[in-house]
Structure formats: structure tokens, C-alpha cells
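Annex B.
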Amino acid sequence: MGKRVALVLAGCGVFDGSEIHEASAALVHLSRGGAEVKIFAPNIEQRDVVNHLKGSPAEEKRNVLVESARLARGNIQDLAELKAGEFDAVIFPGGFGVAKNLCSWAVDGKDCTVNEDVKSTLQAFHSAKKPIGLCCISPVLAAKVFPGCEVTVGQDKNVDGRFPDAETASAIAELGCKHICKNVNESHVDKANKIVTTCAFMCKAPLHEIFDGIGTMVQEVLKLA
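GAL3A protein: predicted C-alpha cells.
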């Protein structure tokens, strides 16, 4: 029987929701790994809505669960209904929606607050010693909820201009966590906490390299499950 994995989304679209390529990559690798996947998102209003063509704010309101349903092809549940006991692992793709909707990192940085359903989900899987996979900006959720854990968001310096958000690594360190430098096609496994992270679009890299990196994260999560 395949591993049962919960995938948690934050909307639909890189600037105000889940990064679509990352969510799709995670789903493809989970499918290839024989996993049984169910998709969840919090039933809350988005912090903001961005016109992805213009890159500017839009004067409208959208719901995170409703928007995430686009990525889930309609097959999605309220995150409040997720029961860790029914799954072997949980995975969070990235995108600004993680830093805006699942927590307030986009506004408050290391002083952010984490959505209560997101926090309780992470804590439930961690307490049950079940693996947690996070990519792109979503490792900051683990850094905030689990002080002392190890994560990667890529590099801690903007190497060759490929890591424009390298300062995130410093903020993670300030939270008392250990940042591990990794390339885009790699992931890091915090064995003690069963947290697996990869940088994805935190690195300016060809799409196939990002896809491959997410693949290593998914593979490690499934090994730990």
C-alpha cells in the first residue's frame, strides 16, 4: 500500500498563493512514488490578491481554500479537517501565499505569527514522529514552530545572483534554527525532527532543476514515512 500524504496549499499563484510549479512537481513525484494524496488548505481570506500579469495589487478579495481548489481540481478539504492520524506525512509547497496566508512572514519576518490550523497540523505530525516536507519559503514555518530544527532555503549568500533571498537564512538562524546550505537540486533531512526541506524557487534556476530538487524532498519524505 502506498504512503498516505497530505498536501497543504496556500492559494493559487506565486505572488499571493501556492507556487503552481512547486505544487505540481510535488504531486507528480508523489504519484511516481505510489503515494495516496489528499489536498488541504485553510478556509480563510487571502492577505491580498495580486494581478499576476501586472505584478500589482488587485482590488478584490479571495478565499485561500477556494483558490487552492483550482490546483486540486476541486478535490480539496478544509485544513481544519486534517487528522494527522490518517496520514503518514505532510508536505507544504512554497509561494508567497505561505508567507502571507499560512503565516505573516511576508510582513513580519522572523517575528511572524503562524495560522493556528497550520501550526496545529505541523505540531500533530511532529508529535507523531511523522515526516514533514517543505520547499521554497515554507521551511520558515518549521523554523518558527520548531526552534532548533535544521532546514534549508538554499544558500546563505547570494551566490552568482542565484539566491536573491539569501537573507532568509539569517532570519532562520536568528530563530535558533540551523540553516544548511544546499544546491537547488538537493534537499536536507533533519533526521531528529523528520523535517525535509529544499529551496525550489528560492533559487533562480532552470525549471527542471527545481523539479528535481522537489523530487529529492518527496523521496526523502516517503523514505521516512
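The mean pLDDT is 98. The radius of gyration is 16 Å. Further annotation is deferred to the next reporting cycle.
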